[in-house]
């Protein structure tokens, strides 16, 4: 479209505008992704760090985007090795290995921000990770169930979801079932355009 519009007199600099947009977009994207990783500063290798994580997640086809980012706190600040296998669904040793290798790179990157041995830094990191990575998101299969129940006159699930999504960042053990990814091979009726 930019090429088609570039012949208009007022659009003579559309190429430079698109170049500027690309720079602004990439900077904003990296700021957002840095926040999801709990990073305060930007370093030259951050884009590669993000891309490496996204690549591992794409290789591990069952890895859930939201749960992966939310689990970084447990992986980095806890000593729960089972989290990685749960995210990868424990069935692909290569993906587990690549994810664990990425975690080591992430720890090195975090060391630029502060020491994981320092309790104050750990608390700040935990806060940053929690405030940018929701525990609960309105997943299609959850909304589909609530919609079906509401169509039958039962609005209880809708009420629960309204409360839940008002504060999707706080852990709520009684609502843990809403944090998991969709069941494998779940057929949905609602599409993204619904």
Q: How would you characterize this protein structure?
A:
This protein is mainly α. It has 2 domains: 14-132, no CATH class; 134-194, no CATH class. The protein is 61% helix and 0% strand. It is built from 9 helices and no strands. The chain has helices at 2-5, 14-36, 46-59, 65-77, 82-87, 93-113, 119-132, 140-151, 156-166. It is globular, with a radius of gyration of 21 Å. Mean pLDDT is 86; it is low at 187-194.
The major β-sheet equals: none
The overall average pLDDT, rounded, is 86
Please state the overall shape, judged from the principal axes of the Cα atoms. Answer: globular
Radius of gyration: 21 Å
Topology:
Elements: H1 2-5, H2 14-36, H3 46-59, H4 65-77, H5 82-87, H6 93-113, H7 119-132, H8 140-151, H9 156-166
Helix pairs in contact: 3-6, 4-7, 8-9
Core attributes:
194 residues; globular; 2 domains; mainly alpha; disordered C terminus; 9 helices
Write a short abstract of this structure.
61% of the residues lie in helices and 0% in strands.
